[in-house]
Amino acid sequence: MGSKTWADLAREMKMFLWNPEERTCLGRTAKSWGLIFLFYFIFYTCLAGMFAFCLYVMLLTLSPYTPRYRDRVSPPGVMIRPYLNGFTIAFNVSQPGTWQPYVDSMHHFLAAYDDKVQEEKNIECISGRYFIQGGNESEEKKACQFKRSLLQNCSGIEDPTFGYSKGQPCILLKMNRIIGYRPGAGVPVSVDCKVQKGNESNLRSVDFYPGNGTFDLMYYPYYGKLTHVNYTSPLVAMHFTDVKKNYMVPIQCSLNGKGIINNVNSDRFLGRIIFTLSIGK
């Protein structure tokens, strides 16, 4: 038997693709192909149904209001405002264009803290103790008032420039929200700031608001955005009234309280935050 030519191979391939005598395609009749497609359709439909059922049963065990497992939740991280271009706040007092964006950012952020807004949406609470709210977890929770006037010199009310026009900038610090978290174990968490690296005399004076720079217990615990609709995170304002001018000053502001961790070198936001102030004349 001689070897097959390319023409023979092409003819066999054509016959395999479609055999007009046996009316088969790729060696199978239309009925055979139909049964195969039907089998796989039913098979994958059953798999999809089983997956959907398992997912549905799993979701039934979860609450949309409270995380089921919270044993691995770390102490809160912190963040500052204004936050525009990273963690360096640099401006020249004599050039309003360099500090006006920070001022605008502060006003925008504090709009939700306006006294009238807080009086309309939230209630007055008893200071110095946690605001525990019972009832069904799906019930809407009340939120305590945090008025921007509590920030005093850093409220933007008396000084709309938040001290930036005088080279004495205000920076706001807030803790990240954690559902059910009660910071300080009954004692308010406080804030302090220091020079992170370098000469400590580069930062000579910082004023804290409200009070002595603490997070009042009445703003905790937080119940989640679905039920704690009008909740506004409490703030601590840091008024840097005497910082060395024309110099990059790295500053570390830390939370202090029972259960607070602020010395993990691998996480600069856990219980502390590091930023740089550069104030030109």
TrEMBL record:
<dbReference type="Pfam" id="PF00287">
    <property type="entry name" value="Na_K-ATPase"/>
</dbReference>
<comment type="function">
    <text>This is the non-catalytic component of the active enzyme, which catalyzes the hydrolysis of ATP coupled with the exchange of Na(+) and K(+) ions across the plasma membrane.</text>
</comment>
<protein>
    <recommendedName>
        <fullName>Sodium/potassium-transporting ATPase subunit beta</fullName>
    </recommendedName>
</protein>
<keyword id="KW-0325">Glycoprotein</keyword>
<dbReference type="GO" id="GO:1902600">
    <property type="term" value="P:proton transmembrane transport"/>
</dbReference>
<dbReference type="InterPro" id="IPR038702">
    <property type="entry name" value="Na/K_ATPase_sub_beta_sf"/>
</dbReference>
<dbReference type="InterPro" id="IPR000402">
    <property type="entry name" value="Na/K_ATPase_sub_beta"/>
</dbReference>
<keyword id="KW-0813">Transport</keyword>
<keyword id="KW-0735">Signal-anchor</keyword>
<dbReference type="GO" id="GO:0005637">
    <property type="term" value="C:nuclear inner membrane"/>
</dbReference>
<keyword id="KW-0812">Transmembrane</keyword>
<dbReference type="GO" id="GO:0006355">
    <property type="term" value="P:regulation of DNA-templated transcription"/>
</dbReference>
<feature type="transmembrane region" description="Helical">
    <location>
        <begin position="37"/>
        <end position="62"/>
    </location>
</feature>
<keyword id="KW-0375">Hydrogen ion transport</keyword>
<comment type="similarity">
    <text>Belongs to the X(+)/potassium ATPases subunit beta family.</text>
</comment>
<dbReference type="GO" id="GO:0005890">
    <property type="term" value="C:sodium:potassium-exchanging ATPase complex"/>
</dbReference>
<dbReference type="GO" id="GO:0006813">
    <property type="term" value="P:potassium ion transport"/>
</dbReference>
<keyword id="KW-0472">Membrane</keyword>
<keyword id="KW-1015">Disulfide bond</keyword>
<dbReference type="GO" id="GO:0006814">
    <property type="term" value="P:sodium ion transport"/>
</dbReference>
<keyword id="KW-0406">Ion transport</keyword>
<keyword id="KW-1133">Transmembrane helix</keyword>
